[in-house]
């Protein structure tokens, strides 16, 4: 994880599970017309301490979209799980947590549409946007995109446009914003964060049976991209794709 200030511990309400920092890479900009091609979730407890990670490429059942942006090729998603296959695990990871993202409404919209396509309504869940936080707390930032906010926070380089890289650095940006001198805006003070945790803990979530294998009997794989921290420059090879088997489906490590 990238270095960053550690916020002072807060009193998390009973039953709170913490935060789920989410990032998706998609085949285009429209949640209605395009599909998620990679997803990552970084779990944080009520004091913003890391609890686990989940990440995989997804088969979008069509073209992967702007490879020049996310560096995912059509060959990379061959054999990757479909959204329906990882949906049960996602529901388990997100349930009871505040959903966090940089421009979180975008990530939420893509998740909402993917779940709707398989007939599962995503329940109303508290959202926390690091872009909004950064606008208030990092006025020196050159812009409000994730890269500009990360630079202004002094968090270093990261593998941009990989779902796991973006989710990890968004988690660190959240920690930084909560821990900066003067604290977050009034409506995101520790008491309000605790209130969001309490609200999230009360949201009823649907459950789905796990897809443990495919019709062929083969295990459902996870395809996880890993990339070292550092700038992505022209000519730098895309991150390696690491294949893990179905056993990883039940783990957040």
Task: Summarize the entry for a quick read.
The chain has 253 residues and is α/β, with parallel strands linked by helices. Helices cover 29% and strands 17% of the residues.
Model description:
By secondary structure, the protein is α/β, with parallel strands linked by helices. The protein is 29% helix and 17% strand. It has helices at 67-70, 83-94, 104-117, 130-137, 146-152, 163-179, 190-201; strands at 19-26, 36-44, 50-57, 98-101, 127-129, 222-226, 240-244. The strands form two sheets. Strands 3-2-1-4-5 form a five-stranded mixed sheet. Strands 6-7 form a two-stranded antiparallel sheet. The model is unreliable at 1-13 (pLDDT under 50).
Structural class comes to: alpha/beta
Radius of gyration equals 18 Å
Total DSSP E strands: 7
Strand order of the largest sheet: 3-2-1-4-5
Unreliably modeled segments: 1-13
Shape: globular
Distance between the termini: 14 Å
Give me the secondary-structure topology:
Layout lengths: L18 E8 L9 E9 L5 E8 L9 H4 L12 H12 L3 E4 L2 H14 L9 E3 H8 L8 H7 L10 H17 L10 H12 L20 E5 L13 E5 L9
Parallel strand pairs: 1-4, 4-5
Antiparallel strand pairs: 1-2, 2-3, 6-7
Helix pairs in contact: 4-6
Which terms would index this structure?
single chain; disordered N terminus; two-stranded antiparallel sheet; 253 residues; alpha/beta
């Amino acid at each position: 994880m990238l270095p960053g200030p550690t916020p002072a511990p807060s009193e998390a309400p009973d039953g709170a599970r913490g935060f789920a920092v989410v990032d998706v890479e998609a085949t285009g900009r429209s949640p209605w017309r395009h599909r998620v091609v990679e997803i990552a979730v970084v779990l944080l407890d009520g004091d913003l301490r890391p609890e686990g990670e989940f990440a995989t490429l997804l088969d979008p059942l069509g073209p992967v979209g702007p490879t020049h942006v996310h560096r995912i090729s059509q060959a990379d998603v061959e054999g990757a799980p479909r959204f329906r296959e990882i949906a049960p695990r996602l529901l388990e990871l997100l349930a009871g947590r505040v959903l966090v993202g940089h421009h979180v409404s975008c990530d939420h919209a893509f998740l909402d549409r993917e779940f709707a396509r398989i007939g599962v309504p995503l329940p109303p869940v508290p959202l926390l946007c690091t872009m909004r936080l950064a606008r208030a707390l990092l006025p020196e930032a050159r812009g409000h995109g994730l890269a500009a906010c990360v630079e202004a926070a002094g968090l270093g380089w990261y593998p941009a446009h990989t779902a796991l890289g973006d989710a990890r650095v968004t988690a660190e940006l959240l920690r930084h914003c909560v821990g900066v001198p003067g604290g977050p805006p009034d409506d995101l003070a520790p008491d309000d964060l605790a209130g969001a945790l309490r609200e999230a803990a009360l949201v009823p979530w649907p459950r789905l049976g796990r897809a443990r294998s495919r019709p062929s009997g083969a295990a459902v794989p996870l395809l996880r991209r890993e990339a070292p921290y550092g700038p992505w420059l022209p000519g730098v090879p895309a991150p390696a794709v690491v294949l893990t088997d179905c056993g990883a489906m039940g783990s957040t490590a």
